[in-house]
Amino acid sequence: MSLSNLIKNWSTLRVKRPYEDQYKDKDYKWAMVIDLDTCTGCNACTTACYAENNLPVVGKEFFGKGQAMHWIRIERYWGENEEMEGKFPDRGAQFLPMLCQQCEAAPCEVVCPVGATHHTPDGLNSQVYNRCVGSRYCSANCPYKVRYFNWWQYPERAWPNPLEQQLNPDVTVRSKGVMEKCTFCVQRLTEAKNRARTEGRRVADGEVTTACAQACPTSAITFGNLADDKSEVARIWARQKVDLAKDKQDKEEDLRGYRIFEDLRTYPSIVYMERVRNFEA
Amino acid sequence: MTVRMKIMLVWLSLLMICGSAIAEPFVQGGAIGSQTDDGFNALGPVVEQPIEFPHNTHAGQMGINCMYCHTYARRSAVSGIPRLDKCMGCHKLIESVKDKPRIKKLFEYWEKKQAIPWKKVHDLPDFVRFNHERHIQRFYFREDRPVREVCGYCHGDVASMTTARRVKALSMGWCVSCHQKDHLENVSTTKTSNGPNDCWQCHK
Amino acid sequence: MSSSIIDRRGFLRVLGISGTAATLAGCGNTSIESGVELVESYVQPEDFVVPGVGVYYASTCAQCGSGCGIMGRVREGRILKLEGNPQSVISGGKICGLGQAGVQVHYNPDRLTTPMMRDGDGLKPVSWEKAGAALSARLGASSPISGEQIAFLTGEISGHQRVLLDLFMDSFKSTNHVVYEALSPAIGQAANKAVLGVEQPVLQIDKARLILSFGNDFLGTGPSPVHMAAQYARFRKAPRGTLIQIEPRMTLTGANADRWYAIKPGTEGIFALGLANSLVQHQAYAHALPADIASVLKLYDKETVSELTGVHADTLSHIAGMLWENSPSLVLAGPSAEGHANGFQNVAAIQLLNLILENNGKTLQGQPAHPFPQLEPARSSTAALAKLDALMASGQCQTLLVMGCNPVFTAPAFVHFAKHMEKVPFKVAFATQLDETANQCDLVLPLLSPLEAFGTHVAGYQPKGVEVMIQQPLMERLYPETRAFGDILLDLLKQRNPTAYKAFPDYYAYLKTAVTKAKPVFKSSASDDDFWEDALRNGVLHLELPPTGLQAHTEALKLGKPQVSESDTQYPFYFVPSIKADLRDGRHANLPWLQESPDPLTTIVWDSWVEIHPSTAAEMQIREGDILSVQSATGIVRVKAYLFPGIQPDTVSMPLGQGHSQYGRYANDVGVNPFKILNPIFDERTGELAMYATRVVIKKTGENAMVVKDEGPTNVQQGRKLVATLAADQAALAKEVSRVTQ
Amino acid sequence: MSHTVDLHTPEDKDIHIERKFVPKPLDIDREVSWAKINKDVLRSLERPRPMFWVIFVAALALFSFGVYCEIYQYQNGMGAADLNNPQVWGLYIATFIFWIGMGHSGTLLSALLHIIHADWRKPIYRYSEAMTTFSLLTAALFVLIHLGRIWEFYYVVAYPNERWVWPNFSSPLVWDATAIGTYLTSSLLFLYTGMVPDLAICRDNARGVRKKLYTFLSMGWQGTDRQWANFRVTYMTLACLLMPLAVSVHSIVSTDFAVSQNPGWHITSFPPYFVLGALYSGCAVIITLFIVLRYVFRFEEYMTMPILNKLIKMTFAIAMVWNYLNLIEYATVWYGDNEVAKAQFIYKITGTYAPVFWGMVLCSTVLPFALLIKFVRTHMPTLLVVSLLLNLGMWLERVQIITPTFAHSQYPWTWTANWFPSWVQWGIVAGSFGWFTMLFMLYCKIFPAISMYEVKEMVHDQSKMLKARGQ
Q1: What predicted TM-score, i.e. pTM, was given to this entire model?
Q2: Contact (CB<8Å) C34/B124
């Protein structure tokens, strides 16, 4: 950003974000809702993400070292407290699809020394691979630990010929030493936005979605534009009384929407809907 | 070298460093379409193409609209090389040049149903997403500028070349210099807007 | 119009010059280069082909037998990604992980690219001329073999491939088309047929208020997981249904249950009868059963049932109460109930509950009769394999053709399939990639991948009406030496009977003719070409047919005294194989995405493991990663231990699908193959292999190795609010915004 | 006195304040002649003994192995270090803080004590200053080594460029880069400025290449009054500038952690805690080097026991403050209402990395009390071992700040069970010690390790003071 630009936009850059109605007059604020009651933990989203975003398969050795590259991972918990209760998990498992929460006040953004990760006008937490120097500070600072580092030169290993032909040309193939993470399938968003702009309109609800939401067999993932009041995502957020700019929601008992680690004031863009269990069964 | 000179030298270099730091962001590129020196001229290498295509004949003498052949530019991120049957569509009927070696070559490819292996002249790094469609829609269709000006801003005056050659740096600073400029929203207003200033608009 | 289709195929052929050049440069290349790369360049593409813009083509997923409609995203001539096809009732625009990985079958680096012929000990690449000559010499016009001398072994196969295959076998006057699926649901199908009158009832999961599932993993490995997952999503919306799962080892469906109960393997039928006994006490259900059955049911009082099944007696009453209160309900039987010597009985007893509760017609319906029964998938069974094995062992079988199944890997060790296969003088495999069975063959013919070939599929499970799924190439073939299975069959048929097939230059022509001939059934008045084009564009031919009713046959149930098999002191543990939704019987172990996709319940990747309950592990002083020997009467495997709370304490479980030795770089030497330690126990009624009836003894070997998994040192939430749970009676689901219910 | 009027109480009468002068041992012998100082110090620049080369080659070997590891890591990727998600930093950042911390005491000795005219610093500040510079150089290496794309390191630097992009000024890493750069530059400048008069002495006594080198470096120093006057002003100004820098650098390093929300890092007292920790480890190294130089160069007359004693007292005081801040940190966590941080703290002292924590407690909290024992203070080999252990403790302290927090972070799913650094990391850490040793050994043979002119001043002042007292 040049100095002139910096000076020109100083007032908007200086504002503490997020603030009330920040996206009210904006065109886009991408957000997501994940219904944990319908998520079955089937991993279709994970594989869809590998396919869409050129994620490398790291293999057993590197996976064992904790160097896996799944932008969206399905976590499986057996209990809410520090120990599992009872002999069997008789209310089933607790599955949690965890991906970049696209925080409005993202802890990763402030600490990146080179500004490789920043907040886009659409409310996304971006990652610019070719700017990344690989200090991994963002990952250290991410409370959700959803940033994945290219520990090895995966392109040389992960796609032996002809597997490389599957690579999505809209997404960069990351080389060693750069950080990467869920982008909300920004390549799809950009394409849809460009198309809409050419046609002089806003992207319609349902016109674009992320690979995970598109694949999800139970439609547990809903993706859309929070700046558009009529979008499904905005309606769910509103119905669940989750306010993007608040770190504590005042809502009724029977509402299921919540954001993870709200008290850390990261203001995530993903609302999870509580899992429901019939305890009378 | 006297001490005074040494001191002068130090001050001068300091001044240069600071000066460039302050002045650099204010460097103004040329106005769109001016095709004049905008400070980013960088002549690329001569690229040998399978057929030495005369842009000067087609776009220059004949005055064919760039997008007659590069038809994808207005509806896709890439402008695309014209499909072979498009070349043939005209050249089948132009008897006068059929015997020229370049046209003969064209016919050879056509008969073999083989795509011509054109080489890329305007290449961008793989992490960059440049969208022809948006630029054409904005400046050609909405602002109604002449096509040679709109295309020429990045590609130079192709109508004066045979095979195309890169003339602009196509570097980030060059892109940004234009994105920061105030462009008219459309023909009828005086409202202006900038190009996107978001990393993710161009980086993928 | 027909020319435009040819052109479209033509488009795939005369693709761009750099259509196959993918960029691997990544962030490394920051420079701007001129004259290094080539530009996308076309000769004569379709109008809608625009470089830089992805085009979607409809097709059908061939990863499992569910027949989901898919859309392939094609750019610059490459198939990049598969999505669900919203036109297809089965997939409803969704896709599972297994389906996504279809592109890796196509782009697999270990794909078979040329025909291979046995030369001494190994297979050597040969030309198609040579391969074709060898094939003609054996199976051509002058072939003397017939009847039992030839056998065609396939996995589940449907559509016009199956028609051609049947015609091919007819030309040898043979009925030896053996359809073998290691995970065949044949026992359940037989029991369903006997009790309900249909092999596979159509389930209305979304309509049920309560689902009681005995090991039925409809979300993971059922007959149509994607479709059922969508139904499940609606089931979970207001009014929210309740799912109770009873099984010895937690499946993915069990992990999503409102209540999960562990049960001793093989006693599911007894529990179901106990429930039936409780239910008929209720006046509403008192007369649901004939008197003779009702009287025998009295033997199944809750104390006896509780003692035999290991489930608490109160649980039984509680579930019975739930069933009373929540109607309509749906009771399901699954593989872990089926795979026992009394498997048929188990399923019949479980289906009896549906009859008592009068769920048939509400949540259970009959599948409408398919207008093209010849296209329907041939039912698979393990018993058929045993027959073929005997045929081979006796030396009667002269020629064996194998396609889409890998019995050398999946047949239990006691079958000695590989050894018996050696007695067959001429064995041909049709494959996209060499596997253990193909490696034993004399001739291996390289097939097009499902993303390169035309074809039709008919799913065994048709949730709504009837669908014929169309498969079309999404991309130009990667290897010129590969051929479509249909084309090879058609060539052979032409040699056998030149006149009958001369109208069809290739399989495509045959398929098109055959499909367009079905036009009247689909009540279409379009021209043949338009009909065909529409079929290709939609990827599916749908025919709305009403579901049929079910006929109850309570007499099919042979009730006796409640009893279970004796416990075995030598082999104290029940052995329950688990089916991973993505690897299934192991045919997908060559797909790296699936290997790296963590098992949902254990999060383990790239490996085999044995699950053991933490309490048992504590008794035996087993820690995670300890290498255990798991020994049955027929075999032994050594595998890492994983402490898994969702399992009956006297049961151990191992996932199927790993342990390949000749299936490419991604599958080889990963884990062990539990198929090999299954005991020769068969269902008493159907003769099918009882997969869940094996007993094992486990011993520590003293070694320990790291278990490679996504889960960290803790598997609980540590009091952080990560996955919160709300009681169903507190949640105001009806007020929620949801697209799923619409 | 009986004839005087007794106006006072009887007790008062007995008060007899006897002002007894207890002669303390002198910091330096006043009888040392100036020529002897020159001779003794310049002797240390003479051709080294064989043992020097043995140690030097060992250090070089260690350094070469470190370089090999770095090349290996560069070619294969950071995965070679067995780093993972969430253990993204490993030993690199821990060792980085260790080295940068070591750099603080040199400044303390040379600048702060210079400003407050604590004369005893004079014989020992030069080598501490050099140590500071070299440990900063080593620390800077770690900043580069830990980068995933070391070849793009210049993105962190704010300089005008064609792309019109700047680094992210809100990132503590940019502050780090700036602070370290500034500190390194000013330390070098300070070291060099302070050496100029001595370099002139070297110039006057050297021949050949050395003569040329010293001539160039001494910048025409003649020792004129004007030169001395300018020199003193410059030196004092630099010292004043350096003081806030020294405090800021480690405060900034601490913000790398303190600004994050990770349990165990998100602590307000981190900046002073880090600065004290830095001074602590620096003092320990100065003691180590004191003993080594004193022994090797026979500097007993200049590096005297009283000076060492003062140094030890200072070290002890710093250790106590550091301990206090340490306790405050734990108390804040313990009595605070952040359950996550508390869980993390319990993990730190009981979990996988508990040995690291308790090792730190043993070496850095308990061991300094050994300095109270006279034997330890006076017996050189023991003191050497103690000072080395203090340093080990400080290194462990940095490890236990970083590793357990990653292993037991906010997010339970990504906890790690028993992460351990690979040989590449160990190799690079070991290599950094080789690199530092090499630099320091070369320095001692090229530049005077003791400030000659200031020792002369000290002798002069000492005798002047004693003369004034009439001794």
Answers
A1: 0.91
A2: no
